[in-house]
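Collaborator request log, item 7. Partner lab (contact: R.S.) asked for a structural prediction of Type III pantothenate kinase to inform their binding assays.
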Amino acid sequence: MILELDCGNSFIKWRVIAGDGAERIAGGVVDADSVLIDAVKGIAGLQLEHCRLVSVRNEDETERLVAALATELNVQAMVALPAQVLAGVRNGYEAFERLGLDRWVALVAGFRLAGRACVVIDLGTAVTSDFVAADGEHIGGFICPGLPLMRGQLRTHTRKIRYDDQSAERAHLSLQPGRNTVEAVERGCTLMMRGFVASQVEQAGRLWGDDFTLFLTGGDAGLVSDVVPAAQVVPDLVFVGLAIACPIV
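Returned to partner:
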């Protein structure tokens, strides 16, 4: 079994897959290292042989998690590292090590899957997009607030905006003008995300015409997928790239 981890600043997305990568055995999202350890320990018939992770945390936090995995689960984690070139993709950042590693492995995965020019849009806490040309040149990308950040800022800085997650979920059943605060906020933020995705498609069209593949990933991909029906929605794109960055031989 292989434990794979995508360690963000606030949450850890994890999954355990069979050794040949063909079957997902368990997985989830947690907000603390200790919760992760307990969740993995609770898997019936657990027989971990390998672990690999990608992290945007600072070095000390990542090292503490690696040490905990070794102590509690008896597995040594392979950690994805920055690179100028990986699997035929050339990192386009002026300082390649400054590109978020989750973005890096996801765009490498997109290029591997597409075999041609591609755009990778990750719709999570933040929304990121990255453009990779047909020759593997990463030509850069964009970062903007995702739905959780937009919602959080409005709740923090506007006293009368208060509602629960269930109300937010119901508001997404339509994109008609909101008739109460929760509908107005949730639908307004969703429309901003959808407009961002449309703008990325327009930019890719100016670069490559129709000769590119669009990938959508991240927790809110479902809210925008109908903007571009031809887009490929790949929820675990980061894990696809992690397997490329940290192959098990």
